[in-house]
Design a protein that fits this description.
The chain is mainly alpha-helical. 65% of the residues lie in helices and 4% in strands.
């Protein structure tokens, strides 16, 4: 009966490992979708800003307040996109170089791009879970054109 218990234990272990890997792939996919939504929102805000600047230059109208609101929204979107991209790389078990910003394998001691010594501490408590990122994105950046 010992062999059958070993086989069952190994099968359960394999299923657990596959489940964790599949969950990781799903999390990364959700994060990539959130990043794509944020990039799309950024493009839209840039287009609106461009139209406003053009309109302002070709007419006597002043859109300073609207431009400033759009610039603040763009800054907020860019910060959020950067945090989502950092979370994607963290989920892929990669770390970001504090000097040049490139991503390296988790176990690396030095940056593969600039050679700077990498930080060994992981700040995983700062990151949101993929579901929190999706919820945050849907709550804060959906159909908000400012115009």
């Amino acid at each position: 009966m010992g062999i059958f218990e070993d086989i069952l234990l190994n099968a359960r272990s394999a299923v657990d490992c596959v489940g964790r890997k599949a969950g990781n792939v799903i999390d990364i996919s959700k994060l990539k979708l959130a990043a794509a939504d944020l990039r799309s929102e950024l493009v839209q805000k840039y287009q609106i800003l461009g139209r406003i600047v053009y309109e302002e230059q070709t007419s006597e109208k002043n859109y300073d307040k609207t431009k400033q609101e759009l610039i603040e929204k763009i800054k907020e979107l860019k910060i959020h996109l950067e945090s989502v991209n950092d979370l994607i790389e963290s989920t892929k078990h990669r770390i970001k170089c504090s000097s040049c910003g490139s991503y390296n394998a988790k176990g690396a001691v030095f940056c593969s791009k600039c050679g700077e010594k990498l930080e060994t501490e992981e700040n995983t408590a700062e990151h949101m879970s993929p579901d929190d990122v999706i919820d945050f994105t849907e709550d804060n950046f959906e159909d908000d054109d400012l115009l």
